[in-house]
Amino acid sequence: MKKWMMLLTGILTALSLVACTPTQVDETIPQPVGGAHPAGITPEMVRESNGAEEKLPDPNAPILEMAFVYSIDASGAKLTRELVDLEELTEEALVACLIERGVLEEGTEVNGFDIDGGAKAGPGVTAEAAGDGERIGTLDLTGFPKADAAKEKLLLQAVANTFIENYELDKIKLLIEGANYTSDNVSQGDEDYLVLEE
């Protein structure tokens, strides 16, 4: 019995020594509570201890504007709508996008672009000041591609939709070199406008 008691005492002593051995503790810097770090701890110390790298925005990166550009899909039967990033939303930038997508011919330029009618309510423009008049755009281009009747309709609609949507217009008049748009298939008069169609 004494042997068992001695053995039991030895085992308990060994376990108590193991339990009392100090353990390795990883120190971490306390995270801020309520937005403030404890005294003496800087945000740099916290980032270094966490291994985090502060990412600041590139001050030289351009601020881009989003625009929708319409073009004819691969089947040639309907329009597609694409979201693009532009450094600045201008009529020239939209025409360049339309040229890239084959809607307008290379070398097409903008002779002029005007918007008449009600302003859109927004910063600096109250709903009363905006009124309820139609916003009508007039786009004057240097040329327009020749095409069969079905394709020409899609090309005209791609240009119209692109400008109507991006400039929040109700309708748009297309001019070529200052004159109403006319072709073998289409002849627009002074009161003819293009409206948004999908």
Summary keywords:
single chain; 198 residues; alpha+beta; 4-stranded mixed beta sheet; two-stranded antiparallel ribbon; 6 strands; elongated
Alpha carbon gap, first and last residue: 97 Å
Low-confidence stretches: none
Count the DSSP helices.
5
The largest pleated sheet is described as:
4 strands, mixed
Question: What do you see in this structure?
Answer:
With 198 residues, the chain is α+β, with helices and mostly antiparallel strands. It is built from five helices and six strands, in the order ααββαβαβαββ. A four-stranded mixed β-sheet has the order 3-4-5-6. β5 and β6 form a beta hairpin. The chain starts with a helix and ends in an 18-residue tail after the last strand.
What's the topology here?
Layout (H helix, E strand, L loop, with lengths): L1 H19 L22 H8 L14 E8 L6 E8 L4 H10 L9 E7 L10 H4 L5 E6 L7 H19 L3 E6 L2 E2 L18
Parallel strand pairs: 4-5
Antiparallel strand pairs: 1-2, 3-4, 5-6
Helix pairs in contact: 3-5
Give a concise summary.
This protein is of the alpha+beta class and 198 residues long.
